[in-house]
């Protein structure tokens, strides 16, 4: 049963006219499903409510076509036709006794209105964010009155959809904050001193109340510190003052820090609860509940924040994605069962990919409706077949765990004397310690399963596997970093001198480290080259990271790590070179060509680290003659994870989970949400 120390997390709390059953507040978060995939969206939010989150919010919900968020997949309440997709979510959340909240937003400077082609409106004439050749028009009083009207109409529709809470979004990317920021240079009563700049937020709260009507709670999500130095709003002066000015006006304050990258930093750059210094003392200026975030996974941290009066409710997006059942697990005293977020931000990357939310730790995320997967339940086994899983990395561990949960007799054989595969190695690199949670959660689950046996130090040969006689063999033997230069830019092995010492990430992770003047060539473009650069720079080497891309660690734009990666490398004295493609090496030097112009360059170096691509470890598969359709009666050997196709850890976990879900099941296409072309709605103007 529940540990008494956590009782405080389960005390109900009033939010204006409504009551939350506990202190767990799922803050708004993007998910790539939104109003384009409303069934998938509703099912995902419903699972959060089932898992015990007392308040479950939507993501951004635009109030008017001139605040168009497309092509990002979010929500809108532009007219009554937008109500049903949101009503679906409300129904799913209410079914489990939670409160449903909608986050009304108007992006202003943030978006170019790419779908609607309306002229973007904002506090001042200025270019929109990003590099779209579009400018925002400064709003006049008529525009502001119009905005308030649109907002009120959207609030009325939110009421019709059945929401309990309407959130006025004062995030970085929305109009309320853009007026509030000291960077608003208007000269009328909406600019200048704070009391003027906060006027629009106050008016938005008022029209939300009018539109939402009695019984509807109104919350505000607000940035308390822009992290923009003296140019921006700072918590110590105007941040706390702003909350003081509107202290009792909303029913709840949901407080955040900086841009999305600051609000959701990865574990490489920030620990759990990194916002506490910004939140401390804010409760002293309002009697309304205060929510804050901080990638909370520890119930002790959560309870302590409430007990010490820093927060009233525990806000979470990522921890609720990694484990939708986090509150229920604390309530039921099952702390060890919590699938802790590792802070990798792969979930964020699915927003930029504009497709179903995904999560490294929780492979069922985003698949609740289309594949019918549930984070806690799985279909029972269909037969008494035994399964041998070879390789205990993320793919093999998740596969063995989920097959074990189904009730199959599983044997997991790992050649090393420890489990975790690549995660165990990568977890030792700078900043990646929390990634070990991928291994640790699965190992702790498997350890309690009597039907899953684990053998370490078992380097299985094809003969061992045949002799073992399992009903099915799953190969999860991983992949090895290439040392020939082939990657995205090189299609053939490069002419690399045997006299230029060559290393791969596998070398660096297993202690075979280069020393001296080192070039790290990154044609992988995710985190690996940068964390290796960190490690080697910290060891006192002279490090240069070279990439043919336009930017260092290009993919990490999608995980919000991009700027911080460059900042950290700069602090460590790592030289960063972009647009250079590796073409070869000779003793003491490495040769490059400009990826755009072909111009040649030479760089002196003692050694070269190639971070380009990986090759699947397929020796066992080739010997056993496996592969193919996992459901076929004749297929007795299947490969999963990196030994099928190397990818990020999220893909390996998903691959292992998918095999377990689909084992001995009928083949079926996942469900899709399609436009009904016979609908009469499509034939009206
Ligand atoms: P994935 O990401 O697909 O899970 P990893 O590289 O993380 O891949 O893990 C693969 C695991 O398989 C490693 O721990 C490796 O030691 C193990 N392995 C590889 N070949 C064999 C084998 N022949 N027998 C047992 N284990 C193996
Ligand atoms: Fe956490 Fe990574 Fe899952 Fe996002 S994808 S919720 S950061 S584990």
Can you walk through the features of this model?
This protein is an alpha/beta fold. It has an eight-stranded parallel beta barrel with strand order 3-4-6-10-11-12-13-14, surrounded by six helices. The chain has a five-stranded parallel beta sheet with strand order 17-16-15-18-29. The mean pLDDT is 95. It binds adenosine-5'-diphosphate and iron/sulfur cluster. The site of adenosine-5'-diphosphate (ADP) has 26 residues, from helix 14.
Radius of gyration: 27 Å
Bound ligands: adenosine-5'-diphosphate, iron/sulfur cluster
Going across the biggest sheet, name each strand in turn: 3-4-6-10-11-12-13-14
The residue fraction in helices comes out at 25-40%
Binned strand content: 15-25%
Tell me, briefly, the overall form.
globular
Category by helix and strand content: alpha/beta
Task: Give the end-to-end Cα distance, rounded to a whole number of Å.
Answer: 58 Å
Mean pLDDT: 95
The low-confidence parts are none
Number of helical regions: 22
What's the total count of β strands?
Answer: 29
| Sheet with the most strands, sense and barrel status | 8 strands, parallel, barrel
Question: Which key features would you list for this structure?
Answer:
685 residues; five-stranded parallel β-sheet; 29 strands; 29% helix; 22 helices; single chain; binds adenosine-5'-diphosphate; binds iron/sulfur cluster; globular; eight-stranded parallel barrel; alpha/beta
Can I get a quick summary?
The protein has 685 residues and is an alpha/beta fold. It is built from 22 helices and 29 strands.
